[in-house]
Design goal:
single chain
Length: 226
Amino acid sequence: MDDLELPWVTSTTWILGTFALALVIFQLVLVRWIPLSKVAWKKVDYVWLSLAMLGIIGGVGAARQQIAINFISLAESRITFAEEQIKERLEFGRGPAICRTFVRSEFSPPPEEFNRIQREYDEQCNWFRTVSEKLQDTTFVKREILRLEDFGILPSGGDEWATSNLKDAAQWYNNALKAYKELSKARHRSNLEFTLTVVGPFLLAIALALRITKVTGEIRLERLSR
């Protein structure tokens, strides 16, 4: 057998053959040789509906896997975009807008207030630099949830817009990462799902054959009762 040859379970001919064979067997056994009673035919509904449900479950698993595979590239691009947004905000946070020394002038606030503002900006600058240095070796490389608190106490004061903007970017990144991980998990099927995906069409074919046989058997009983 060629390694690249599709297995017989993927052949429509085999599915149709299974349906035809099951239909013949059911017609012979359940209608002619061992005809079922009216109540027994009602109970047959449990059988063919159960087979049909198993076949449907296999199809759902295959659909979920295919959709997840199609979405995974989009999820990756969103993570990349979120990473770039975080880098841009970190660059701003360690840039001259935050990391600067204020110069006193006649319009400056009182010395105590002036020193407090300078201290807040210095703390904010150091925090942004610390996050920038550690982030590349941790979260982004390992694709982990980003918790800004892990890099030290978030600064209060200074340029609040810089901090809140970074928080928003971190939230976008975490949301994108969660979606990516869910899709990565969804694109893999369990052994049970794989088995149901393979045999699902055959189960549906057998269920349909049994349902058609049930109709035949019930018509036969109806005619006999007249």
